[in-house]
Amino acid sequence: MKTLLTFSLTAALLAGCATPYAYSQINGQRYYRAPIDTYPLLVLGVDGKDTPHSPVLVDPGLRSVRVQGPSGGAGYGQTRTISLEVKPCTRYYLVAVKGNRLASDFEVRVDHEETIGGCTVKAARA
Phi and psi for 15 in degrees, rounded to 5? Predict the structure, then answer.
């Protein structure tokens, strides 16, 4: 009886671990280091919620992402809010693109996107 109970609990725990959870990530670090006009960003929030960690875990869909760019030589960097269509099981690297190192103005660009290992679109739709 004890063996059957132990087996049942183990099976239930393993079934819980096997349940896929589809998610995506937004990261403010540069993926490509060579372009000299790109700079890392600080992801401040997604959909109106502050984000203390990076990368930020998000659900797929249209997301409103608030970022802070690099300083232009004086004080803190400017903030921007962008809309980003997030695909399931995808990691996004966002960067600031500036005309020169001392400029405060910047544009936000997706530097790179990649599929997250172990996550499948089929699992995301289930």
Answer: -65, -40
Report the greatest alpha carbon distance in the chain.
73
Residue 60 is encoded by which pair of tokens?
A: 């797929």
Taking all residues of the chain, what is their mean pLDDT, rounded to a whole number? 81
- For residues 12 and 16, give the distance between their C-alpha atoms in angstroms, rounded to a whole number: 6
Q: How far apart are CA 126 and CA 123, in angstroms?
A: 5
Q: Residue 5 gets which letter from DSSP?
A: H
pLDDT tens digits, one per residue of 12-31? 333 333 335 678 999 999 99
Residue 21 confidence (pLDDT): 64
Read off the tokens for 118: 């172990």
Beta bridge partners of 95: 40, 109
Q: What is the Cα Rg of the chain in Å?
A: 20
- Dig out the tokens for 117 from the structure: 């290992």
Q: How far apart are CA 26 and CA 73, in angstroms?
A: 26
Hey, is 122 helix, strand or coil?
helix
Beta carbons within 8 Å of 120's beta carbon, 6+ residues apart: 20, 22, 89
